[in-house]
Write a structure and sequence with these properties.
The chain is an alpha/beta fold and 317 residues long. It folds into 2 domains: 199 residues, 3-Layer(aba) Sandwich (Rossmann fold), CATH 3.40.50; 88 residues, UDP-galactose 4-epimerase, domain 1. It contains 11 helices and 13 strands. Strands 3-2-1-4-5-6-11 form a 7-stranded parallel β-sheet, with helices on both faces. It has a two-stranded parallel sheet with strand order 7-10. A two-stranded parallel sheet has the order 8-13. Strand 2, helix 2 and strand 3 form a beta-alpha-beta unit. The longest helix has 22 residues.
Length: 317
Amino acid sequence: MKTALICGISGQDGAYLAQLLLKKGYTVWGTSRDAQISHFRNLEYLGIKDKTNLSSMVLTDFRSVLQVISKVSPDEIYNLAGQSSVGLSFEVPVETLESISVGTLNLLEVIRFLDRPIKFYNAGSSECFGDTGNTPADENTSFRPRSPYAVAKSAAFWQVANYREAYGLYACSGILFNHESPLRPNRFVTQKIIASVCHIAQGSQETLKLGNMKIYRDWGWAPEYVEAMYLMLQQDQPDDYVIATGKSYSLEDFVNFAFEYFHLDWQKYVQTDSSLFRPTDLAFGRANPQKAWDKLGWKAKHSTPDVVKLMISAKIY
C-alpha cells in the first residue's frame, strides 16, 4: 500500500486527487496551514474527509515541511498548494510568489535532504506560456508569464526541472490548462457564471458583470486532470506534460453555453465591467496535449460545452 501526501488537499484538485488515490488503495495524507481550523468542505462534499489523514504544514517554513514529510514518510508528494487565483495575484504578488515558489523549493529541498525515493508532482500552469496566439503550446514552448501568479509558477517549474537534472530527483510538473468543477471557489469566473445563470433561471433579476469576454481558454473537467497527475508519477522516468483538452473557446462561448442550457439569451443578462479587466491578460490560451496521450495514455473526455453542463447539473440537482 502506497502513501501519498497532498499539499493543498482542501482545494479543488487536492480533493479530487485524494478521492482518486483512495480508490486506488493509497493511504492519503493532506496538509493545510492549520488543519485544526480549516474547513475541508471539498473533502466533505466528496464524502472522504473521514478517510484522509490531515496535518498542519506551512510550506514557506522549511522546518514545518521537514517535520511533516519525516512523519508521513510518503511514497508520492503532490504539490497543489499556494495562492491559486491569477486575478488575486495582482493584489498580493509577494504572498503569491512565496506560497508557490518558496513552498515548492522547500518540498524539493526536504526530499533531497532526506534522501528517500519519493516521487514529486508539481502543479504547473498554462499561464506560464503567456499569449501564444493561435499557436498551441506544448512542452517545448517558451514561457512568457504575464501575471505575478504566472511568474511564481514559472519559477517553481524551473526549480523542479533543476532538482530533477542536478540531483536526480523523481520530480515532474504538470502544465495544466484551465480545469473546472463544482468545487471551484466562487471567485473564479466560471463558477461565478454558473451560479449567476442558475439564479437567473430560477427568477432572479440580477445582472452578471464580467470583464473581457473575448479571451480564449481551454477549459477541461478537473476530475479527469487529477488522473493525469497520478499517471505522471507512475512512469519509469520523470518528465513534464501539458494537460489540456486541445480545444479552446471564448469566455463569451462559455457564457452562451451556460444560458443556452436554460434556453435563455445571455445578452439580456450580461454586462461588461471594465473594472474587472486585469492589468495584463492573455488573449488566447491554446494547447497541444499530444505528449500526454502518447506517453501517459491520457486524453480528455470532456471539453468546454460538457464542462458547463456538468457544473450546472451539480448546481441544480
